[in-house]
Design a protein that fits this description.
The complex is a heterotetramer.
Chain B lengths: L3 H12 L22 E6 L26 H4 L4 E4 L4 E4 L2 E6 L5 E6 L13 H14 L6 H7 E8 L2 E6 L6 H5 L12 H4 L23 E6 L4 E5 L4 H4 L10 E6 L3 H9 L13 H8 L3 E2 L10 E2 L4 E5 L9 H9 L3 H8 L18 H6 L1 H6 L7 H10 L3 E2 L5 E3 L2 E2 L1 E5 L4 H15 L3 E5 L4 H7 L4 E5 L8 H5 L22 H11 L6 H18 L2 E5 L2 E2 L3 E2 L3 E2 L18 H7 L1 E2 L1
Parallel strand pairs in B: 1-10, 17-18, 17-19
Antiparallel strand pairs in B: 2-3, 4-5, 5-7, 6-7, 8-9, 9-10, 11-22, 12-21, 13-19, 13-20, 14-15, 15-16, 23-24
Helix pairs in contact in B: 3-4, 8-9, 10-14, 11-15, 18-19
Chain C lengths: L1 H6 L1 H23 L31 H37 L1 H16 L2 H11 L6 H12 L1 H15 L2 H8 L4 H37 L10 H10 L8 H29 L8
Helix pairs in contact in C: 2-3, 2-11, 3-4, 3-6, 3-7, 3-9, 3-11, 4-7, 5-6, 6-9, 7-9, 8-9, 9-10, 9-11, 10-11
Chain D lengths: L1 H29 L4 H13 L6 H11 L6 H13 L14 H35 L7 H12 L3 H15 L19 H38 L2 H8 L4 H39 L4 H11 L2 H29 L9
């Protein structure tokens, strides 16, 4: 059984010029203990999907359909209060490293404590928790602005693990951190995951980081999941032309803007090309691609691709 | 931060609104007096909404104003009612001038005591006058006394002999209480040794301020002054006046006409201050028991001694030209001023003195002059002719001009008369070709006195029962009064007129045979010159409530004028009867 | 434009209200004789009728004419003072915020201290030193003399945040000089904010002028809205039941302030789009 | 560090007080209006009679008040007196002292304006916070537009309208004054009720007008705050709505409001003029208005000094308290 199963998820936003579909018919499974990566250009819908899984899409956005199954519960249809209880306890999130995810006017320890308290847990063991993610003693009494970026991110990890969830969504947890700190934070995350026996959904656009960290990888393009495969398989043999181009640009992967290497512009979500959304940029595109939308196919065991020619 | 008491009060009131209590709490709570024995009045004293001077009962300090209560605390040598043309000898029993008016002997009444039990005597009178002379400009009335008085001596307990520097036939009348003028006799045993400029004479525990009169101050705070009747008042015992029926009178500071109207309609207040004519209809509708001097009919009041003029600064060209002044006068339709400015509730005034009974003979003596030079005439043609005659021509925009300059009358005003008439005057002048604007500068008094104005709406505090006071207002120079101060707001100068006025200074005002010709001579100069433009009488339009009190001084029963702020108000207080 | 207004109802309401007012003034100017706004041009104290749609006041002004003549005067005071205030404030704010250092300290200090002095004191001192009656333009200058303090402060802080933005740094590195950066980079970015500040300043200036006038310190003969209220108050019109005398000026003042207010709210939304999200 | 910070802040406070006090020394003297003459003539105006020797009296009292001395000497003695918190006599109320007059007026102003400012701050901030909150009750949407409309109205106009309706038409409340004619001040229920009744009309018009402003400001800050990452993360933490609302949104959005409140409280004294004059309320604003009209130098100086100190003190307190409210502001940095 999967730790998390997403089935046919659709998220769209109301816009004065029409409906914008940010996540379109996305399905995938997260196995227990697994590290699953999700890559895509910015605007490809990966962060929206993370929010959708947490049921945190705010108006004017909304989930249009699909199921989010977590340990027998469907988050897509659960009552608001039940969803709240499930957050952190069942599925936790490590926010983007570039975000100021911590309330600047509260001591960080309090920000762990209130999470526990609101889940009817006594706020104990915070010091141990901090130590567990490699923070020095006394950190809990500090304010966010007194911590470095890496330390703040560790605090976020500590918060994410404090209720021992089965799934952790990490949305670009190391963006805005320098490379050395990045490594350390990722190591901490890996340790925590092992510790908790949790599954991790790692979202990002840094293929290099993904290659080192995840077991399986999903590739998103224009709100759709275009390929899912074990990481070794993808690196060795990408099936989707888009994935292929991503891998091809790997030599410059240490660069933040690695994905800029792909010719053409990412499409506007509110004005998607017909058929396969990638066809205007695709070197292999044919007439069919502009008309017919490819459905996901399992071309090999464990490898799903959305392409007519894979 | 600023100082100890304020910090304390700040903290107190920050705690709750209810803590607003630092007012008059130190004083004992006055005993209750039923409403029907209490007379409550509102007076628009020096500050809106507050008795800033509540602890100042020394009437000579320049911060003191007799209008705010001292007028019923200190008794005079005599009262004078202009309406009844009657003098009431009071602390003084009689007085006698020497024929040359260089000495005055006053007999004071025996058997009068101050409220602290010390007998009143001639010493108090002499002390008051001598201290005034010595203090001079430091205190009120000091210069008036210093200019003419050499020495006051108490020759025995009931006799004061006053020696003058110059003949002073009006000195006793000057000391007599009427309107706002009179000498307050203060207790020597309290005031002696005190600095009159800052001594307050206030300490309720000691019974201060002490008084010979029927009123004792029992409470004084920012919000109210409470006076209680003293049953052992000497004048009641002596049969000079009845013991007042009013047992308590509460004086409240005004917070505006609208509040007064509301309070009178709801019977919270028995007497008001002078208000605008327009408000009376609302008052009568709201409370039919409210009356005025003229009942419920216009002008809702009586003529004050303060006729209002349009002053033209004679130092400013072209107003040094009497023809220009007359032209301005001819351009003013006084009917409109009364109908629109006062809603019909006023009267014109042909000379700068009120048409009081004792003054009528003087008016009569210049009747022909006023017919020839009608100071009230509205006649634009005559005005045009005068200006044309002096070479003024109307320019393309219809304004009178000469050598490229127009006639410009910028008028300043204040109080009630300014706004009531100012805009109308400028409008009338503009329509006749004279540039004009109206303003009410905050520093009106300063400008007016320094002569920094062109036109000004102001009154004349001059004559009541004989014309010298009025003439004095126009004197440009005086030899008769040593170191005389000059009022001369219009800056008009005429040596012959000055001489006549000086001559009149030494004449006994009761000597009509000499007074009338002198007045006639002065007016023969003054009227054709017209130093300022005559407009209207000043009215005191005071609402009185007959719900609790009657026998107010109305026109059928005009025992005195009814202003609570005048020195004669004690007469009203002992005449009031329960309704 | 119309489409945009649909999304920004506050701006639409604001513009709508002010348009109604302008329309009233334009129609009024056709219908009235401006002379009727002067005293003695009509019988005094008439309630509204066909001849005098807003009634007349105690001095015989036709209140309809007085409103048509007086409203633009009040607006003129507000606009002159408001514009002067914002222009001076903007210049000082940019000089202070951009060059920093001693200039900034000086300007900021002056503005801070200026704000501690009771405005009324300064306004009265100026009013006192103007000999003769105050004219409407002088009144505007009196109000303007204090109207620059607040804009200076608020715009300065905006300039300071703007300074830290990347594009200003880029512009500086690309060799633009100070005034160029201010004119080509900063002012365009601040325009919506300056717009909102201006509208705010205008309504503050109108408020200040009406306040002074109600206290009797305005141009006594001009039929401005504030002076009309002064006469209302002076004549105790409220308790005397002359309701028409004060309803018209109060209604117009309400329209002016509400219109300006909704315009600032609308402009704020342009300047700060996040606000648009709720309500 | 903290002590040094406080000392520096206090130094700035003193500097501002000195500069502003100097400004207020020279400003009233610029107009050239002679307060002594004004005072004496105002009396003549009331009494109708110009006393003999007014000019002599003017000279006498100008000498007494030191107004005949050269300006710089007046300034020096002014600074000395002010440092000792001695504000001299009030010229137009001689022999009353400026200090007494201020002490009498202050409680009224602080009572009325302090309470209404705090009340409207609390109500407005609460309304504004709720209004930005998606989970707020629906009726809120109907409360706000009228409040905003009221916010745009000059409060003295609202005062006039309320006065007409509540006091004149329906006679529910007294029009003017601090308490009823003849009421004896005292610490008793009837008197307190009377004071409250008299304060209701001005208070109501201030609260009705000011609340909208606070609500508007708070709503803006809430919207900005709710877009912050830490609020999103707080939601992801599965916090209760109430926790997010209070500890993450209101707690942060209220910071700029607090600054504004401190400034508003500091400006109460100078802002009181119009309210108090219109409603005949015996506070410091009415006192200042009279002082300015009569150009009573000493009284103006005393009141303005009090105002400046109040303002400076609130700013100073704010500077001291702010790091505590917002830990990002450290004592060292500013």
């Amino acid at each position: 059984m999967s730790a998390l199963a997403v089935r046919g998820l659709r998220v769209s936003f109301d816009h004065p010029l029409g409906l914008v579909r940010a996540v379109d018919d996305v399905s995938f499974d997260l196995r227990p203990n697994e590290r699953f990566g999700l890559v895509g250009e910015s605007g490809s819908g990966k962060s929206t999907m993370a929010l959708a899984i947490m049921r945190m899409i705010r108006p004017p956005g909304h989930i249009d359909g699909g199921d989010i199954l977590l340990g027998g519960k469907n988050l897509a249809t659960l009552s608001a209060e039940d969803v709240r209880q499930t957050r952190l306890a069942g599925i936790a999130m490590v926010p983007q490293g570039s975000m100021n995810a911590l309330n600047p006017v509260m001591r960080v320890g309090d920000q762990v404590a209130d999470a526990m308290r609101d889940h009817d847990k006594k706020p104990v063991g915070i010091g141990a928790l901090m130590a567990r993610v490699g923070l020095p003693a006394g950190t809990a009494d500090k304010y966010p602005h007194e911590l470095s970026g890496g330390m703040k991110q560790r605090v976020c990890i500590a918060i994410a693990m404090c209720l021992r969830p089965t799934v952790i969504i990490a949305d670009e947890p190391t963006s805005a951190l320098d490379v050395v700190v990045q490594r350390q934070v990722m190591r901490t995350l890996a340790d925590v995951q092992r510790d908790l026996n949790a599954a991790i959904l790692l979202i990002g656009h840094d293929m290099g980081l993904m290659a080192q960290f995840v077991d399986r990888l999903g590739v998103m393009y224009a709100g759709r999941l275009v390929e899912i495969a074990p990481i070794a398989e993808i690196v060795r043999r990408p099936r989707h032309p888009y994935t292929e181009m991503l891998i091809a640009s790997l030599p410059s992967m240490d660069h933040k803007d690695a994905l800029r290497g792909i010719p053409g512009l990412a499409p506007l979500l509110r004005d998607l090309p017909s058929g396969c959304a990638f066809h205007p940029r695709c070197p292999k595109a044919q007439d069919r691609c502009a008309i017919e939308r490819p459905e996901p196919r399992e071309v090999e065991s464990g490898v799903l691709v959305r392409c007519h020619f894979a | 931060m600023s100082n100890a008491p304020s910090r304390r009060t700040v903290l107190a009131s920050a705690a709750s609104l209810a803590a607003i209590s630092p007012f008059g709490l130190a004083t004992a709570q006055p005993a209750t007096v039923p409403r029907e024995k209490t007379m409550i009045l509102v007076w628009s004293g020096s500050r809106e909404g507050r008795w800033v001077d509540y602890e100042l009962w020394n009437p000579y300090s320049i911060g003191s104003n007799h209008q705010n209560g001292p007028n019923i605390v200190y008794e005079p040598l005599a009262f004078y009612s202009a309406f009844a043309d009657k003098t009431y000898m009071w602390l003084a029993e009689s007085y006698q001038f020497t024929p040359d008016f260089r000495q005055l002997t006053i007999k004071t009444r025996a058997g009068i005591t101050w409220s602290d039990g010390v007998p009143f005597s001639a010493e108090d009178v002499a002390y008051t006058l001598n201290t005034l002379r010595d203090s001079g400009p430091k205190v009120k009335w000091g210069i008036d006394v210093r200019q003419v008085m050499k020495e006051a001596k108490a020759t025995d307990a009931n006799t004061v002999v006053i020696d003058f520097l110059v003949p002073s036939p009006r000195f006793f009348f000057f000391m007599t209480y009427k309107y706002d003028i009179g000498i307050y006799i203060v207790p020597k045993h309290i005031f002696e040794g005190q600095d009159w400029t800052s001594f307050k004479h206030f300490d309720l525990a000691k019974g201060w301020p002490i008084s010979t009169g029927p009123w004792k101050v029992t409470e004084a705070s920012l919000q109210q002054k409470v006076f209680d009747r003293r049953p052992d008042w000497w004048a009641a015992k002596a049969g000079l006046a009845p013991l007042p029926v009013v047992e308590r009178t509460i004086w409240l500071p005004s917070v505006g006409e609208q509040a007064l109207a509301q309070a009178m309609i709801t019977n919270q207040v028995d007497a008001g201050f002078g208000i605008q004519p327009a408000t009376f209809k609302t008052l009568f509708n709201g409370n039919p028991k409210i009356i005025t001097y003229t009942g419920q009919k216009p002008p809702y009041g009586y003529v004050d001694w303060w006729p209002i003029s349009l002053y033209l600064n004679n130092d400013v060209k072209p107003f040094d030209d009497k023809d220009v002044r007359w032209a301005v006068s001819y351009y003013i339709d006084r009917g409109i001023l009364i109908d629109v400015g006062y809603l019909g509730a006023s009267q014109v005034s042909s000379l700068p003195m009120p048409d009081y009974l004792p003054l009528r003979p003087y008016f009569d003596s210049v009747k022909d002059l006023l017919e020839k030079y009608n100071t009230l005439e509205f006649n634009p043609k005559k005005g045009d002719a005068l200006l044309s005659g002096k070479g003024w021509k109307k320019d393309s925009e219809g304004y009178w001009s000469k050598d490229g300059g127009r006639i410009q009358v910028d008028i300043i005003g204040f109080g009630a008369a300014g706004p009531a008439m100012g805009p109308l005057l400028t409008e009338m002048l503009k329509r006749r070709g004279i540039e004009s604007a109206f303003s009410m500068p905050p520093d009106f008094d300063d400008r007016f006195q320094k002569g920094q104005f062109v036109g000004s709406i102001y009154g004349h505090g001059g004559s009541i029962n004989e014309p010298y006071g009025m003439l004095r207002l126009y004197q440009g120079q005086s030899v008769a009064v040593p170191g005389a101060h000059l009022v001369n707001f219009s800056h008009w100068k005429n040596a012959a007129f000055d001489k006549i006025t000086d001559e009149m200074f030494a004449v006994d005002p009761n000597d009509k045979a000499r007074m009338l010709p002198l007045f006639r001579q002065a007016m023969e100069i003054w009227i054709p010159e017209l130093p300022d433009v005559q407009l209207v009488q000043n009215f005191h339009r005071i609402p009185w409530n007959t719900t609790y009190w009657k026998n107010w001084p109305t026109q059928d029963n005009a025992y005195v004028n009814g202003a609570s702020w005048h020195l004669t108000y004690p007469l009203v207080l002992w005449n009031l009867k329960q309704a | 434009m119309l489409r945009y207004l649909k999304r920004n109802p506050s701006l639409a309401v604001g513009i709508g209200l002010l348009s109604v007012l302008v329309l009233f003034l334009l129609v009024g100017m056709v219908l009235i004789d401006p002379e009727d706004a002067r005293p003695l041009s009509a019988p005094a104290l008439r309630p509204p009728s066909w001849a005098y749609p807003f009634g007349t006041d105690r001095q015989g002004r036709d209140l309809f004419a007085a409103m048509v003549v007086g409203t633009p005067l009040t607006l003129r005071i507000g606009f002159i003072a408001g514009i002067l205030g914002v222009v001076i404030g903007t210049i000082l704010a940019f000089v202070a915020g951009f060059y920093r250092g001693i200039v900034d300290t000086l300007i900021r200090g002056i503005a801070d201290i200026g704000l501690t002095v009771p405005g009324l004191l300064i306004l009265i001192i100026i009013a006192v030193s103007v000999r003769g009656g105050l004219t409407v333009n002088q009144m505007a200058l009196v109000v303007a003399s204090l109207a620059w303090l607040n804009p200076t402060r608020t715009i300065r802080s905006q300039v300071l945040t703007l300074r830290e933005r990347g594009y200003v740094e880029v512009a500086r590195l690309s060799g633009m000089n100070g005034p160029e950066i201010i004119f080509f980079e900063m002012i365009p970015n601040l325009l919506p904010y300056l717009g909102a500040t201006l509208v705010n300043a205008v309504s503050a200036a109108i408020l200040a002028s009406i306040g002074l006038e109600v206290l009797g310190l305005g141009p006594l003969e001009a039929p401005t809205l504030g002076m009309t209220l002064y006469w209302v108050n002076f004549n105790a019109a409220i308790i005397n039941g002359w309701w028409w005398w004060w309803t018209a000026p109060i209604a117009i003042i309400l329209i002016v302030f509400l219109g300006l207010f909704f315009m600032t709210v609308g402009l704020d939304e342009i300047a700060n789009p996040r606000l648009r999200r709720s309500v | 560090m903290r002590a040094l910070y406080i000392a520096r802040r206090f130094g700035v406070f003193l500097l501002i007080v000195w500069l502003a006090a100097s400004l207020n020394f020279f400003l009233p003297r610029l107009s050239g209006q002679d307060p002594v003459r004004t005072k004496l003539l105002a009396e003549a105006q009331l009494g109708g009679y110009v006393q003999a020797g007014i000019e002599d009296m003017v000279k006498e009292y100008n000498q007494k008040f030191g107004l005949d001395k050269p300006l710089w000497r007046q300034y020096i003695s002014y600074l000395g007196d002010t440092a000792r918190l001695d504000f001299n006599y009030s010229i137009s109320n001689y022999p009353r002292t400026v200090r007494d007059l201020i002490a009498e007026a202050l409680p009224w102003t602080i009572g009325l304006l302090g309470m209404t400012t705090l009340l409207s701050f609390i109500i407005g901030t609460l309304l504004g916070a709720l209004l930005a909150w998606p989970g707020a009750p629906r009726w809120m949407r109907y409360v706000m537009p009228p409040l905003w409309a009221l916010h745009a109205i000059p409060f003295f106009l609202l005062g006039l309208i309320l006065m007409y309706l509540l006091a004149f038409q329906w006679q529910l409340l007294p029009i003017f004054g601090g308490y009823s004619p003849g009421a004896v001040p005292g610490f008793n229920f009837r008197f307190i009720l009377d004071v409250l009744a008299h304060a209701t009309l001005p208070a109501l018009s201030i609260i009705l007008v000011a609340t909208g402003g606070w609500a508007l400001g708070m709503r803006g800050m809430m919207v900005t705050t709710m877009g912050e990452d830490y609020v999103t993360f707080a939601e992801a933490k599965g916090l209760k709505a109430s926790t997010i609302f209070l500890r993450y949104c209101v707690r942060n959005a209220i910071l700029p409001q607090t600054t504004a409140l401190a400034l508003a409280l500091g400006q109460i004294l100078s802002g009181a003029v119009l309210v108090e004059v219109i409603f005949g309320y015996p506070g410091i604003g009415a006192l200042l208005f009279e002082a300015i009209r009569e150009n009573d130098h000493f009284l103006i100086q005393g009141i303005v000094f009090t105002v400046i100190v109040a303002l400076g003190l609130t700013t100073f307190l704010l500077d001291i308290l702010y790091p505590w409210l917002d830990p990002r502001i450290s004592y060292q940095r500013t």
